[in-house]
Prior knowledge:
Layout: H1 10-18, H2 24-41, H3 54-65, H4 70-78, H5 81-85, H6 89-96, H7 98-112, H8 119-133, H9 137-152, H10 159-179, H11 183-197, H12 199-233, E1 239-242, H13 247-255, E2 268-273, H14 276-289, E3 298-299, E4 312-317, E5 323-330, H15 331-339, H16 343-347, H17 352-367, H18 370-378, H19 382-393, E6 396-400, E7 406-410, H20 415-422, H21 424-428, E8 430-435, E9 438-440, E10 452-456, H22 467-470, H23 474-506, H24 511-514, H25 517-527, H26 532-540, H27 546-554, H28 560-571, E11 577-578, E12 582-584, E13 592-594, E14 606-611, E15 615-620, E16 633-638, E17 646-654, H29 660-668, E18 674-683, E19 686-695, H30 698-709, E20 714-719
Parallel strand pairs: 2-5, 13-15
Antiparallel strand pairs: 1-2, 3-4, 4-5, 6-7, 8-9, 8-10, 11-13, 12-16, 14-15, 14-16, 17-19, 17-20, 18-19
The chain binds manganese (II) ion.
Amino acid sequence: MRKDNPNITFDELYEKVNTYITDEKELKQLSSAYLFAYEKHFGQKRLTGEDYITHPLNVAYILAEINADSSTLCAALLHDTIEDCDVTEEELIDKFGKEIASLVNGVTKINKLKFTCDNEAVIANHRKILVGLCEDVRILILKLADRLHNMRTLWILSEKSQKENAKETLDILTPIAHRLGMNKIKSELEDLSLRYLKPDVYFSIVEKLNQTRKERDRIVNEMMEKVSELLNAHNIKHEIKGRAKSIYSIYKKLDKGKRFSDIYDLLALRVFVDSVEECYQCLGIIHSKYRPIPKRFKDYIAMPKTNMYQSLHTTVFGLEGYLFEIQIRTYEMDQVAEHGIASHWSYKEHGSNVKASMQSAMEQKLQFFREIMELKEEKNDELFVHNVQEEVLSNTIYVFTPKGDVIELPQGSTPIDFAYRVHSGVGDTMVGALVNGNIVSLDYQLNDGDIIKINTNKNSSGPSREWIDMAFTAQAKNKIKSFFNKIDKEENLKKGTEMLQKEVKKRKIPYAEFYSNDNIEKILDELKFNDMTDLHINIGNGKITPTQVINTIYNDAKSKQEMVLDRVINNDEKSVIVKGDIVVDNIDNIKINVASCCKPIPGDDIVGYISKGHGINVHRTTCPNIAELEERIIDVKWNTEIGKKYATNILITANENQNLLINIINKTSNSDITIQSINTINTSGRYMFDINLLVDNVERLDKFINDIYSISGVVNVERIIK
Ligand code: MN
């Protein structure tokens, strides 16, 4: 792989292209595209000091390395002429035809999008890219090549710009490269991004690799020879290469808590053969000599990854007890593994069919997220996985407001989802909907590209309860429910007011006496309610009984402490009963509950609270619910010999939502944490997830929390006390 070549010439490019394009007309067009770009960029310099034309030449060269077609190569040479040289699209159409002009125009359009950290903008732009790229996947490949060359010359920019570019590359471009299967470009982009985002980490990995290189090279070479002899003895024509692991992939593993010495696929071989049968033969021969590690064998030939990747993977005990990861594949599979969708250029029949088959391959790919497929194997909670898939990964449609704004919705959405996505005010006052100018029923299923107009009426009495079933997205369902919660609140207010009055009457207390200002002040203060409305609502919904309220005035025995006590006991209702997990000094056979308010896990500082008739409730020392109950507190500690998992809650706040849930779930895969439920909390402009999970100790939880902070968009993660 050649890196940035500041002295690249057109002749070098031409020579490279000529190895796979021989059509005279196409080559001639390439030359004239070069001359045009050369002339237009003449006098312009890159920040690096080179003539500007070296950039389009390098971009075209990157594409020639993946055998790009001549239109894409011409577009690469011309890609900055609209942006930087005031060339018009008409001029390009005139000189080079519609196809090339529209490729250049497409790249110019997406290059104008800035992915700053400003949350909404990121999401909206991301969508626009996805919408835009559906026109022609080659625009996206061009963009990746353009970015790759810019990343190779990133050293020239300020540290701030370096970090911005690197972050954008990792956030937006490498996931796209991954989905398109373009692993070679993806991997170089990742390494370059890491180098600028976390230079310390990057260079420490490079250094460690260098320290161990000699020994690794020796052992890999020996192993290569042995395997080669073995395959020769069976008359299998093959090639073997050692495989360097990308720095970024090592970083990812270290980040997941692995130690450098534990990353055992550092020793890796790749065997290339001509046919699929030979792949399996090789595998058998290698396994007969070197013992495989049982769970590390993967047959991606019979079951390709969704980004088309095929190969056999196995890990064996190789020479001197070292573990070797061996990948076996055909040459054609290797093309696909390295270049993904771009391998259509090399292997599929040439002509206009190439474009069509690439396009359809890409469209398939956008529907799949490899991560979630793998997730399914690991998580036992099928329903949970199903919900996540449904919610986050279901096929996406793009629909438009009458003004042309793009709205992204999952397939299956209705005008109700659309209305609430635009604004809850629009949803709450909706009286009808038009799709592409026609009136539709509210359970009408929207299609990609629909233009939707929502008719509203300020005097509408609000949504109907049936809409909850008609809506597809959780967002719309929640907004409709919260509308009704408000109404229910009013009902509870009425009910609670009546219940309290009835109880006061039953106890034969005069109204005027009970509802005196002093009493009301005392009740609100002791029970911690803001006002009487608040109090009445909570009586109405059953959180507090009229008797408890009256007792604050007429029953001195029930003190403030008792009220807090009630609250703690109520909190503990759903707690897990444990035996033996927690040790209480000098006490045996006592019932112990883990408090459900603060949900302690092993490693937390804990105290026991002796509750009347409920045994001991164990809280975290920081739990505010025990602050006022000092005399009932006793020392308890975790029994360190028991390694059971406990439930606890964390609250994640993020300012963007793109793939967030999947990323969170992905972080659990290597950490032995089980997510039990996720409750999405709607707040304006932020995304909050209350996650209930099972974990065996605090170190693991802290590690997991750190992992979550590494997800783009996450602004806060904390354990919560309810
Ligand atoms: Mn460029």
